[in-house]
Every structure is written in C-alpha cells, then in structure tokens.
Amino acid sequence: MVRDITLQENDVTLRSIQESDLPHLYQLIYGDPEPLWKVYDAPFYALEPHTLESYKSHEKARRHRLSERDVDSRVLIEYQGEIIGTIMYYWEEKSSFWLEVGIGIYNADFWEKGVGSLALQMWIDHLFQTMPLVRVGLRTWSKNTRMIHIASKLGMKEEARIRKAHLYKGKYYDSVRFGVLREEWQLTNSPL
C-alpha cells in the first residue's frame, strides 16, 4: 500500500490528498477560466476543462503506478492551514532511480513569499529520504523566472536548455531542465 504523508515546517504543510479536499482543489485549479497560474505553468498546453478524476479512480491509478516503496506521488500544499496548491513527482526513468518533480501554487497571493521554495525543499528532501533515488529533476520554461530562481536557490543545476522549444502568444521560449544528484542535495540542503 502507498504510504500517506504529512510533512510540516514553519507554516507550510505537505499532506496526502483526501476525498474531502477534492471540491476545494477543483475550485483552485478550474474555478477561474483563465487562471494566472496557468500563464507560467506551461500555458502552451491547453488547460482542459475536465473535472478532477474521482478520488476512487485517483487511488486506483496511484496504487497501480507506485510500488510499496514509493510515497504518494501528488500531495497538497497548505499554508497556515489553507490549501494553496499541489506538489508531485513522476518517474522519468525508474530503472535508474530518476524522477521529476513539479509544483503548482494556484493562488497568486502566495507567490514570492518563500512558500514554493520551502515546499519544494521539503518535498525533494522527503523523496531522497524515503526512496532510493539517484537524481531528481525539474522541467520549466524560460518565461517562468520564479521557478528558475527556486531551482537555482535549492542547488539544482541547469542541465539542459532547449532553445525556442515553446511557442506562446507568438513568441518563442526555451525549455529549461534542472537536476540535483543525491550527493549534491546532501551537501547543500539536508543532513540525510
């Protein structure tokens, strides 16, 4: 069975999604037809106006994707008890213990307050502590300067820049990939 998690540091909590969270989470993600968060989170991919999958189908898919050693792959971000976003991972190449992480803070009132940096640091630290990972990666694009700043601040290294990979509103942007190895993370972020 996949292990639920709850992590807390200062005013930030990361915790597994419960069925009772789904209405609020749906409203955060889909409540605004043109959400500001989508302007920075890969807007070149259309935001589908579909409903969130049911909790039961989410649980079934999650259990199918993850092994007993894995942790929950998508959890909530709460700030002072309020749900403000999600953070997740997916396997890029499980055989080499490489996964990618992503974060979405859907309410812009919580941007540039250090919440995203702390949440991502907590998440990566937790993943390295609980899984036999060799590396963690993060993918973004050149318009998302906040995400680039956070990745750099946490000691992730820019490993690839694919120039003019994304077309958005008539302008080209680069795809940017960051990564951190377990031994690098141990030196800069965590007493693992």
Detailed description of the structure:
The chain is of the alpha+beta class and about 190 residues long. It has a single domain, classed as Gcn5-related N-acetyltransferase (GNAT) (Aminopeptidase), CATH 3.40.630.30. The protein contains six helices and eight strands. An eight-stranded mixed β-sheet has the order 1-2-3-4-5-6-8-7, with helices on both faces. The relative contact order is 0.15. The model has no long low-confidence stretch (mean pLDDT about 85).
How many structural domains? 1
The assigned structural class equals alpha+beta
Please tally the helical runs, counting DSSP H or I stretches of 4 or more residues: 6
Low-pLDDT stretches: none
